[in-house]
Amino acid sequence: EVQLVESGGGLVQPGGSLRLSCAASGFTFSSYEMNWVRQAPGKGLEWVSYISSSGSTIYYADSVKGRFTISRDNAKNSLYLQMNSLRAEDTAVYYCARESHFYGGDYFDYWGQGTLVTVSS
Amino acid sequence: DIQMTQSPSSLSASVGDRVTITCRASQSISSYLNWYQQKPGKAPKLLIYAASSLQSGVPSRFSGSGSGTDFTLTISSLQPEDFATYYCQQSYSTFDTFGQGTKLEIK
C-alpha cells in the first residue's frame, strides 16, 4: 500500500524557518517525481515545488522561489521542504504528492495527510 | 502561468441528481487536465486524469470530458459520499495550476 506521511509542521514566527519531511512507503520511491502542494485555511490548492526522481530537476512556484528548498533522499525514501524567511501568507496545510504520468502530462495519484504550518507572532 | 477557472464556485444538489462542473483554461492545454475530490480535513483524491480517464477504484458515475480550453466533470447520480469540493488541475505547463474549487453541497 502506498503511503506518504508528512511531519515537521508547527507554529513559527515570521522570518523563521521550518523543515518538512515526507516519508514514503509501499512503492519504489526513487522511481517517482514528487511535489509539495499547499492549502491555506479555507482556500484552494496551490502547487509549491517539484523534484525529479533523481533530484536533478527542481521547480518552484514564484511565491516561494528563493525561500524554500525541496530535496530528497532516495536511500531513506524521504522528501523534504526547507522553508526559510517564512511569512504569514505561508500559513497552510502542506501536502506531499506522488506524480505519475500519461502521454505528456502528469497527475498526482497519491497524497499524504498533510502537515499544518502556522506563521504567526 | 495558465489560469484555471471553475464554475460554479458552489452548487447545491440532491442525492440522485446529475451534476456537471466546468473548468476553463486561459489557453489551450490539450487533454492535460485532472480532477480531484477533497472532503473536509482530508487530502485531495484523484478522480480523473487526462481529461477523461477514470482513476482506478473511482466509481463509474464520475466522468470527464473536454479538450483544448473547456472541460467538464459529470457525476451521473449523486451519492451522499459525493458531497465535497472538486478541483481541476492543468499539467500542460511546467508549473501545474489548480482551479479555485467547486463546493458541492446537499440541497
Describe, in plain words, how this protein is organized in 3D.
The complex is a heterodimer of chains A (121) and B (107). By secondary structure, chain A is an all-beta fold. Chain A is built from no helices and eleven strands. Chain A has strands spanning 3-7, 10-12, 18-25, 33-39, 45-51, 58-60, 68-73, 78-83, 92-102, 105-111, 115-119. In chain A, the strands form two sheets. In chain A, strands 2, 4, 5, 6, 9, 10 and 11 form a seven-stranded mixed sheet that branches. Chain A has a four-stranded antiparallel sheet with strand order 1-3-8-7, with no helix packed on it. Chain A is globular. In chain B, strand 5 and strand 6 (53-54) form a beta hairpin. Chain B has strands at 4-7, 10-13, 19-25, 33-38, 45-49, 53-54, 62-67, 70-75, 85-90, 97-98, 102-106. The model of chain B has no long low-confidence stretch (mean pLDDT 97). The termini of chain B are far apart. In chain B, strands 2, 4, 5, 6, 9, 10 and 11 form a seven-stranded mixed sheet that branches. By secondary structure, chain B is mainly beta. The A-B interface holds A 35, 37, 44-47, 59, 61, 95, 102-109, 111-114 and B 30-32, 34, 36, 38, 42-46, 49-50, 53, 55, 87, 89, 91-92, 94-101.
The number of strands of chain B is: 11
Largest interface: A-B, 21 and 27 residues
Averaged pLDDT of chain B = 97
Low-confidence stretches of chain B: none
Strand fraction of chain B: over 45%
Query: What profile does the largest beta sheet of chain B have?
Result: 7 strands, mixed
Overview features:
heterodimer; A: 121 residues; mainly beta; four-stranded antiparallel beta sheet; B: 107 residues
Summarize the structure.
Chain A is an all-beta fold and about 120 residues long. Helices cover about 0% and strands about 55% of the residues of chain A. With about 110 residues, chain B is mostly beta strands.
Helix-strand blueprint:
The complex is a heterodimer of chains A (121) and B (107).
Chain A: E1 3-7, E2 10-12, E3 18-25, E4 33-39, E5 45-51, E6 58-60, E7 68-73, E8 78-83, E9 92-102, E10 105-111, E11 115-119
Chain B: E1 4-7, E2 10-13, E3 19-25, E4 33-38, E5 45-49, E6 53-54, E7 62-67, E8 70-75, E9 85-90, E10 97-98, E11 102-106
Parallel strand pairs in B: 2-11
Antiparallel strand pairs in B: 1-3, 3-8, 4-5, 4-9, 5-6, 7-8, 9-10, 9-11
